# Entry
Amino acid sequence: MKLLIIAAGEGSRLRQEGVLTPKPLIEIDGIPLIERLIQQAIEHSFSEVCIIINDLYHEVKTFITTKSFQIPIQLIVRSTTSSLHSFYELRHFINNESFVLTTVDPVYKTEAFSGYLNYVDENDNPLGIMALTQYVDDEKPLWVLTDAKMSIMAYQSEQGDAVYVSAGFYFFKPEVIKFLEIAVSLNMSKMRSFQQFLLDKGNLLLGFDMGKVIDIDHVNDIIAAGEMLKE
# Structure
């Protein structure tokens, strides 16, 4: 299994609050976000890490290319218009292997990620398994409606009957790439639209409750994530 990391955003909300460090290099409990994800891949025996970063912050490229990691790393330096288009740029690295796709933002405990991967191993039928949380700290969360068996029924901008929101990462089988290419050819631009597109095409997607997951979008998130990891 491969780990794909989307780290191509500008981190504009953090910069507005005075944090000039590029988001992938922001430290939580002394470890940069990008390094924390790579360490997770190493600890859980992923075969490779594939990363896309933007071309605005050269220090991120320097960090990735000069630090010695005990896992093969593929790197794309390219600014994109959305996370969906970043995913599209990473598709060439899949090579018919299953993968976990994540943004650089989410922070969670290692044992929660281990539980997520165990759930992936136990469920071979779905095309994808989405990490979910009931902890809502986003201004515009993606609400995820599930049934009693954690099958995903719909993605929503309003809560409605949904209990969970997206935790920012997903397991996919390599067959998802054909749907990705179709979606981009239809000028789809948002990841949430693509996920609904997968449902509309009749694919089985499951959700997994990760417990507390904090996306790093604001200064307060950095503090809260550090405190969560020490609990």
In short: The helical segments are 12-16, 33-43, 58-66, 83-90, 110-122, 176-185, 191-200, 219-230.
